[in-house]
Specification:
Length: 170
C-alpha cells in the first residue's frame, strides 16, 4: 500500500513538472525580459546576433515574402534605419527557407537594414513567433521594450512612435 501511495505521489509530481516545462517552453518573451541573442544567418552564412548591435536600440522584425503587412513595413523600417543611422539597428529576419532568402536578399541588397534568415526557426522559436508580422523593440541594455504580434499596416505609426520613444531615452 505504501509503495502505491509513493508511486502516485511521484507520478503526480512528474506530471506537474512536465506541465511546468511545457509552459516554460511555450512562454513568449515580453517587455522587460532579456532578448534572445541569436537572430539568424546572413546571406553569406555568418551568424547575426544582438551583440553586433553595439549598445543601440534594435528593432527585430520577422517577415516573409508572402506577408503583405511585412512587405509594407520593410521600406518604413529602412527609412528609420537611414534616418536614425548609428542610434538604431534594424534586423529583418526572414522565416522562409535559405534558398528563397538568398534570392530575396539579393533583390533587397540596396537596403541598409540587416537581413537575416531563420530557415531553421530557432530565432523565431526563441522569440515566440507564432505568426507574422512579429516585431520586437529592444533597448540598448538588451531588454525587450515592446513586442508586436500579428498587426496590420495601421499599427506602423504607433510602432514608430514607440521606437522614437526608445531613441529619445538614449
Amino acid at each position: 500500500m505504501n509503495n502505491r501511495l509513493a508511486f502516485r505521489k511521484a507520478a503526480v509530481a512528474g506530471v506537474a513538472l512536465l506541465a511546468m516545462a511545457v509552459q516554460a517552453a511555450e512562454r513568449r518573451p515580453a517587455s522587460g525580459d532579456p532578448a534572445p541573442t541569436a537572430l539568424g544567418i546572413s546571406r553569406e552564412g555568418e551568424p547575426i546576433g544582438l551583440e553586433q548591435g553595439g549598445g543601440r536600440v534594435q528593432v527585430v522584425t520577422f517577415w516573409a515574402s508572402w506577408c503583405g503587412p511585412c512587405l509594407k513595413e520593410l521600406p518604413v523600417l529602412e527609412g528609420l534605419q537611414r534616418t536614425a543611422k548609428d542610434r538604431v539597428r534594424v534586423v529583418a529576419v526572414n522565416i522562409e527557407d535559405p534558398a528563397r532568402f538568398r534570392v530575396l536578399a539579393e533583390k533587397l541588397s540596396s537596403l541598409s537594414l540587416t537581413l537575416a534568415n531563420d530557415g531553421n526557426k530557432s530565432a523565431s522559436g526563441s522569440y515566440g513567433v507564432k505568426g507574422i508580422p512579429h516585431l520586437v523593440i529592444i533597448g540598448k541594455d538588451g531588454k525587450i521594450i515592446a513586442v508586436h504580434r500579428g498587426y496590420s499596416e495601421d499599427a506602423i505609426d504607433r510602432i514608430l512612435a514607440e521606437i522614437n520613444g526608445a531613441l529619445a531615452a538614449l
